[in-house]
Amino acid sequence: MLSRADASQVAGLSRFFKTGAGEYGEGDRFLGIKVPVTRSVVRDCWKQTSFSELELCIGNEYHEVRLAALLTLVEIFSHAKRNPALQERCVDFYLGHTERINNWDLVDLSCYHLLGTWLLDKDRGLLYELAQNGKTIWEQRIGIVSTMTFVRHGQVDDTFAIADILLHHRHDLIQKATGWLLREAGKRDFDRLCAFLDHRHRVMPRTMLRYAIEKFPEELRRHYL
């Protein structure tokens, strides 16, 4: 990863991920590596990467190295379908390092591939706990975005239930994520999304509503707005 640093990209990435004083990514550092390049490194390295090496990488000061650690963890998990003990170790590692999963891309590129998949056939109370009592907005975002896996399997109950938990959240990154997942759930059950909005569109944050209805027919979109 260090050998692929591109100084010309650092300033742009730092602005995009809001690393300035008082912003949500304050103090984070970048190498200037685009996601496709990071994925290519992971493809080359994941089979040889140990958990002790993941420990070093997830704690790294550079954003892209932490992302590489998470994508590697997802690869190890995804290729361990016949090894539930290894999958559980991946989940435990993930949950044990949420303080280092500290920006929206780190959450969105890892959580549902790992936590969502792990919980498909298990109790999902963990996600409710993260959404309700997460120590950071990133843990709360993990709670809602992880339900993407359930939605893709036609299961939308948890998305709507966790959206209710986050309905009045003040941070726009949670509002956007919740609206996004509501929109995805609506692709599976449009009538249920409309029923959800019928009772909440006047009180939910405008950003969340706009994300949820983004793909609605124009007349219906205007109705909810």
Q: What is the element layout, followed by pairings?
A:
Blueprint: H1 10-16, H2 35-45, H3 51-58, H4 63-78, H5 84-95, H6 104-108, H7 111-118, H8 125-133, H9 137-145, H10 148-152, H11 157-165, H12 172-188, H13 190-198, H14 206-212, H15 218-224
Verbal overview:
- The chain is mostly helical and 225 residues long.
- The chain has 2 domains: 1-102, Alpha Horseshoe (Leucine-rich Repeat Variant), CATH 1.25.10.90; 110-225, Leucine-rich Repeat Variant, CATH 1.25.10.90.
- The protein has 15 helices and no strands.
- The mean pLDDT is 97.
Strand content: under 5%
Structure annotation, total helices: 15
Fraction of residues in helix: 55-70%
CATH topology (fold) name of the largest domain: Leucine-rich Repeat Variant
Specify the overall morphology. globular
Number of domains: 2
Distance between the termini: 45 Å
Using the 3D structure, state the CATH architecture of the largest domain: Alpha Horseshoe
Low-confidence stretches: none
| Main sheet: strands, sense, barrel | none
- Calculate Rg over CA atoms: 18 Å
Query: Kindly state the mean pLDDT as a whole number?
Result: 97
